[in-house]
Each structure stands twice: as structure tokens, then as C-alpha cells.
Amino acid sequence: MRGPLAVTTVAVLVTLACSERSPDPWSRVDAFGAPRQGLSEGEVERFEEGRALFNRIFTAEEGLGPLFNEDQCSACHTDPAPGGTGEQVVRKAARFEVETGSCDLLVEAGGENLRSRVAQAAAEMGVVRDTVPSAATHVGSFDVPLLFGLGAADALPDSTLERMADPDDLDGDGISGRLGRTADGRIGRFGRKADVATLRDFTVSALLNEMGVTADGRSERGTNGGALPV
To answer: Considering its fold, how many domains does the chain have in total?
Structure first.
């Protein structure tokens, strides 16, 4: 599936699980993966649409691939309910330069997500799964992240996050932390390095990197970031 529908509906699933309508966005729900208490009838319907799409098995005709890891969101996010963690691992490659202290995520070479599967039609055209880029110095394996409560994080005002930041541990609690920022200066809320600003952007990235489903003008690439055969 291409276009904004998949992005909007999946984002609704995690947003309405902990929505900004409540004065306390962290109010408890009945069970993991269930909608937040107190939603309107229309919001519950949107949540159920998102849950159905989250559990949907995508096909190549709907935009799956050509490279991907799984064909449905809940294939990875399963425990203790759809939207949770899982047994799969995400592999990423990077190049570290000790002399300069820099880290190249090798995005153009496909290093941000090494995808392990190829759609049949693409395989017949010679497309193969991602391999570790030759420029990589390190490869990391990461657990599947929990998605519960991301709607609450998306709803927090920037001012709240700025007030909570404590890079020099001025309150003396032994914990220091600074805000992540995107390339254009927005506060990062999602991703392992807090480098994604909005839940929609996070969803677009997951659809593309994990399933090859494109949206918001982002285009799929071939093996290790190369061009697809035509």
C-alpha cells in the first residue's frame, strides 16, 4: 500500500492508545495493546482500523518490498500483544572513525536497516537481500522496540521536554540527559537516538525500512541502497 493511508492509520493505532485528549496521557488502559480508556466512539473506530492494518499481511501488489524483513507490523511486534516487542532482531551497520570521533550510518549504502527478504518478482530480476556494506566497521543487532504509549510521547509539548532536560545533572539525581535534535533542529522523540521528531515520521520510516511500503514521497531502494532494476 502506498500513500498516506497506511501511515495515518498505523499512527492512529499507537496515538489513540494514549491520546492527548486526557489531562493525564499516561492513564492506565485495560490491557496491553488496548485503546486508552475514555475514547469517543469515533476514536475507538479509528483505533480498530489501525489495529486491523497493523495485523494486516501486505502483498507485493500493495507495495511490499522489493526488500523487507516482515510482511506485517505485528509479525515483529507481538509480545505481550500487537504493538509490543518480539524475538526478531534489527541489524544495522555503521562506520566509526576513531581519529575524528565521527559515525557514518551508511544510509546511502543501506546500513540503517539490513533487510533479509526479497519479494519474488524482485528476486527474479536479480535483486538480492542486503549485505553488510563494505565500508562498515561495526554491525549492531537491536531488539524490537515496544510501541505502547508512543502517542503520549507525540502529544507532549516541546516546552515539557525542554524543562525536563538536564544535561549537567543540576538536580543531583545522578541522571543527566539532553534533548535529541533532528537535522532541521526539531526535538527528537522517537528512534534509538531520538532523531525522529513525529510519530508520523517514525511510522513512515518503519513502513519503508521494514516492509518497503513507501509514503510521503520517500522511494524504495535496491540492495544496499542501490538503484532498482528497470
So the answer is: 1
The domain of 150 spans: 45-166+178-225
pLDDT per residue over 79-126, tens digit each?
Answer: 999 999 999 999 999 999 999 989 998 988 988 899 999 999 999 999
> Sign of the CA dihedral 60, 65, 69, 72?
negative
| Cβ contact 34:19 at 8 Å | no
Residue 139 lies in a domain: yes
* Each residue's pLDDT tens digit, 172-205: 999 888 999 998 999 999 988 888 999 999 999 9
Q: Could you give the dihedral angle defined by the CA atoms of residues 11, 28, 154 and 195, in that order, rounded to the nearest 10 degrees?
A: -90
Q: Do strands 117-118 and 187-188 pair parallel, antiparallel, or not at all (unpaired)?
A: unpaired
pTM of the predicted model as reported, rounded to 2 decimal places: 0.79
Residue ranges in the chain assigned as alpha helix (H)? 4-16, 41-54, 120-124, 150-155, 158-164, 199-206
Q: Are 21 and 39 in contact (CB under 8 A)?
A: yes
Report whether 143 contacts 85 (CB < 8 A).
yes
Beta carbons within 8 Å of 84's beta carbon, 6+ residues apart:
32, 33, 77, 78, 146, 147, 148
Residue 140 inside a domain? The answer is: yes
In this prediction, residues 1-10 reach a mean pLDDT of: 49
